[in-house]
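Run: sequence + pyridoxal-5'-phosphate -> complex structure.
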Amino acid sequence: MTNHKEADPDRLAALDHAHLWHPFTQMREWAAEPPLIITEGEGVKVRDVEGRWYWDGVSSLWVNLHGHRKTEIDRAIVAQLSQIAHSTLLGCSSPPAILLAERLVALAPPGLTKVFYSDNGSTAVEVALKMALQYWQQMTPAHPRKTKILAFSLAYHGDTVGAVSVGGIDVFHARFAPYLFPTFKANPPYCYRCHLGLTYPSCETACLTDLEEALRRHHDEIAALIVEPLMQAAAGMLAAPAGYLRRLRDLCTRYNVLMIADEVATGFGRTGTMFACEQEGVTPDLMAVAKGLTGGYLPLAATLATQAVYDAFLGEYPEFRTFFHGHSYTGNALACAAALANLDVFLHERVIDGLAPKLAGLRNALAPLAAHPHVGDIRQCGLMVGVELVQDAETKTRFPTASRIGWTVSREARALGLLTRPLGDVLVLVPPLAATPDELTVMVDILHQAIVNTLGGRRDSPAVLPSRSDTVEHGR
Ligand code: PLP
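>> structure
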């Protein structure tokens, strides 16, 4: 449990050795390699300026759901364009913004009845944090000492300074320590490398003990707990054990601390249900959504709140209880129209119901990877997958950072026609929900082949690689 105050020089010096957490791609590598310039997309593939097609194995950074150039979303944006592209939500509203808020409330965990728009995941988180902090000041009776946030080590909630304050990935965040607001940090469940040296499920989620202790001792100072439900994504796809989220909810209730669910990565079907919180029957007090909200088309985000949170912002004019926060493009009409069409696709195509065979197919396709000597762990939650590569699977020893294994494998996968991203030495596969079981199998096969090409070992059958020049034969 730490309280960030200063940039710790030892911690910064250690960054080069923070094996798992070096940035997605280092600047020098990025500048030296030929740029990948995407000009077109169709279904679950994108095409580069040279005419090569790639499987979009990261859903264009976890945003795309129904494939590229989805007719219904394309049309909805064009239709909205013929009305108006944007008008401010500062003191006004617009039909798409109103309709979308209604739809979100109907879909969200019960009790989240209020919607505040912004324009990306980081701002949706900032909004949730600021609301939580202001809430306790304006409660009756006020709780002026509740000024801190309890967050997880290895968490990622975005790149704005408030979101960085509650982040815990040193290589992204440690440099900014002197400028961040104070937080309490708890260890997340990283079962493959349990910091307590225990094994799930016999551990009985003992990692919650420290967190509970922090709440017991400091709940008077803690405004909110923020969590990425079910899966800490940017940390390397760390899946939480069953029941963990529910227990967090219960602890927040017991210690009178607001719960903020950051569903930016996990929302909109990514974990197999519309929202991850549903899987454990959890209603957070605040919930941030973005990424998939528009089906991966346009920047839009929302922070949902309970009536109790909302009520704390009502008062007489001179009290100035308003939540004074807003962005120029908040609730952009084109983006809201895209989001409405996105939700229509979920409804009409019964997308969530159709996920079960895909998830099972993905699990089956991933299973043979486990036999590779350098695959340490495979973590899957819905359509979010992390494959952790290790030098020695027996001892879980990491590769030296300088060997850039994750980066090298992802470049090999790209050469084979799959876009993936390394999070350190964790290879990430987050395909669009629209991918068929066969397409998911091909993506996993390519990833497997890229691992074999880079690290040796063998596969029982060769990957079915897409022809570089083929046109898209799948999709909508
Ligand atoms: N929260 C989580 C859990 C995320 O994974 C991300 C981005 O990956 C963010 C917040 C930030 O979202 P954005 O990139 O839209 O600012």
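>> summary
Residues 9-65+352-455 form a domain with the Aspartate Aminotransferase, domain 1 fold (CATH 3.90.1150.10). The chain has two domains: 9-65+352-455, 74-348.
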